């Protein structure tokens, strides 16, 4: 399992690196003000559908069914099932794209109530360009589920790298030669659907190479389709509510000029541990646990989950401490240039600090949810997500009431998201314990305590380093700032893993043995 995790995490890391390069160039050209807000709004809309329909509800229902058919009924039945579903999904996505394009103006206005008329008009135009990306990316997510069920993780993970490479071509090879900021941001918007097409091509070729055979057939509503729909229902609500959490925060932040951009750029950093560990483990664990349960290997399935939790916390805890201690230097070091000012870096740094508090919760929820989905239980996570959404909405409302339109809404909204994340993961843990699927022994809690101690020690090291090297971390040269920031972070990582080894929170031998399995 760890080998598969490292495959996904490795390509995810490459995707994050190229994504940071994309965001650095984007922030250079458009900053974190009004123009940056319009791009965030246009980029966010198709990504919302990707997370709700593609990677959220659809995969949580489709992968267990496909993996189950693959394990119990063989490839031919599984291939026929996936072909029918993919055709239906393509038809549904086409309808969504057309309807969204027609009604994009009221949709954009509803999502960005704080925008003035000029910002709203530009955001609407950009969203009409980017909306077609949801067609490509949802099919990418579906085909990725098929490949993951066959233990093929490289191509789906690499497809996200290709998207960023398309953006970099646009940012470096096209935008410098285009006049006018509105035209430049339009080029950026066109990169999204072009990148989506490239992503889809990559996973299609990988599926053909794997031996997956798709059959062109008239879609029909049979028992499998009905079962998928019933499983997707709670998943749609759950994934939709998760995105509602983010939308509520960004909607409130839209009343603060630059607030949406601050949340966007800070969340990009915050998503790093979630992508490297949380999402990666979710991708690997769902087919793994499903197939073990179908083969009546219940203890092995539970062991996979506990291993996932331990490994997730091994990374998530130090990531939380590191981002909290270095929040502002990270944002300043990576993004401060061109139109992205030091003041904007400070605002986004505050949001990152608040987001980081919930980082372990975001990661752990991605690890725990497959234990529900593998047992074809999508209703329970939905209920827990609804509770966390209510918490988030109430806290965002309180933040808006206390801070007002001119206050630090970015900070209040990010903190509300973190609290909601901890509520959600707490409910997921309790639910698995009541179901008898998860029993955390004293060894797990001892390891967790040792990881926390090692993380705090690491935090002290990076704080001292940042204190004495503050002038360099805030110099005008990005080429100087980033290596020093990386050196401080690297020293912290070294201290953390040495302490984790010494305290036996996780020894080097255990890690080595895990990768050999």
Automatic annotation (TrEMBL):
Asked if the record carries the keyword Ion transport, the reply is no
Name of this chain's protein: Probable lipid II flippase MurJ
Q: Upper lineage ranks?
A: Bacteria, Pseudomonadati, Verrucomicrobiota, Verrucomicrobiia, Verrucomicrobiales
InterPro entries noted in UniProt? Lipid_II_flippase_MurJ/MviN, MurJ
Q: In which pathway does it act?
A: Cell wall biogenesis; peptidoglycan biosynthesis
Annotated membrane topology is: Multi-pass membrane protein
Subcellular localization, as worded in the UniProt entry: Cell membrane
Supply one GO CC term from the record.
Answer: plasma membrane
One Pfam match: MurJ
Main role? Answer: Involved in peptidoglycan biosynthesis. Transports lipid-linked peptidoglycan precursors from the inner to the outer leaflet of the cytoplasmic membrane.
User: Might you name a Gene Ontology BP term for this protein?
Assistant: cell wall organization
Q: Which GO terms describe its molecular function?
A: lipid-linked peptidoglycan transporter activity
């Amino acid at each position: 399992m760890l080998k598969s995790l490292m495959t996904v995490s490795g390509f995810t890391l490459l995707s994050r690196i190229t994504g940071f390069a994309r965001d650095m160039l984007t922030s250079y050209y458009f900053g974190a003000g009004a123009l940056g807000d319009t791009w965030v709004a246009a980029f966010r809309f198709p990504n919302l559908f990707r997370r709700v329909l593609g990677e959220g509800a659809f995969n949580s229902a489709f992968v267990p069914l496909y993996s189950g058919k693959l394990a119990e009924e063989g490839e031919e039945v599984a291939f026929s099932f996936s072909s029918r579903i993919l055709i239906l999904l393509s038809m549904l996505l086409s309808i969504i794209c057309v309807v969204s394009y027609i009604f994009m103006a009221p949709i954009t206005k509803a999502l960005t109530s704080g925008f003035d008329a000029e910002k709203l008009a530009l955001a609407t135009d950009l969203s009409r360009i980017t909306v077609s990306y949801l067609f490509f990316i949802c099919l990418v997510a579906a085909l990725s589920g098929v490949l993951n069920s066959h233990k093929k993780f490289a191509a789906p993970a690499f497809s996200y790298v290709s998207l960023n490479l398309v953006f970099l071509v646009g940012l470096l090879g096209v935008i410098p030669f285009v006049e006018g900021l509105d035209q430049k941001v339009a080029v950026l918007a066109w990169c999204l659907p072009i990148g989506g097409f490239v992503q889809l091509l990559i996973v299609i070729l990988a599926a053909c190479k794997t031996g997956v055979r798709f059959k062109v057939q008239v879609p029909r509503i049979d028992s499998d389709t009905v079962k998928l729909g019933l499983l997707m229902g709670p998943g749609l609500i759950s994934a939709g509510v998760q995105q509602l959490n983010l939308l509520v925060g960004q909607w409130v932040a839209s009343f603060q000029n630059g607030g949406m951009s601050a949340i966007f750029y800070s969340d990009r950093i915050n998503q790093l541990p979630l992508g490297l560990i949380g999402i990666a483990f979710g991708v690997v664990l769902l087919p793994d646990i499903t197939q073990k349960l179908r083969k009546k290997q219940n203890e092995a399935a539970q062991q996979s989950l506990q291993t996932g939790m331990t490994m997730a916390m091994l990374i998530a805890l130090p990531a939380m401490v590191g981002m909290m201690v270095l929040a502002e230097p990270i944002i300043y070091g990576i993004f401060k240039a061109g139109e992205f000012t030091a003041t904007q870096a400070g605002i986004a740094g505050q949001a990152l600090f608040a987001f980081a508090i919930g980082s372990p919760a975001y990661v752990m929820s991605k690890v725990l949810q497959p234990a529900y989905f593998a047992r074809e239980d999508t209703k329970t996570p939905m209920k827990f997500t609804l509770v966390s959404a209510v918490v988030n909405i109430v806290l965002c409302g309180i933040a808006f009431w206390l801070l007002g339109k001119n206050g630090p809404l970015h900070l209040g909204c990010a903190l509300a998201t973190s609290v909601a994340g901890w509520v959600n993961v707490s409910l997921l843990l309790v639910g698995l314990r009541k179901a008898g699927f998860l029993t955390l022994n004293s060894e797990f809690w001892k390891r967790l305590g040792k990881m926390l101690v090692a993380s705090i020690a690491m935090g002290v090291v990076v704080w001292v380093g940042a204190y004495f090297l503050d002038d360099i971390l805030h110099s005008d040269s990005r080429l100087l700032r980033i290596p020093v920031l990386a050196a401080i972070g690297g020293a912290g990582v070294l201290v953390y893993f040495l302490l984790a080894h010494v305290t036996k929170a996780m020894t080097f031998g255990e890690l080595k043995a895990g990768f050999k399995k």
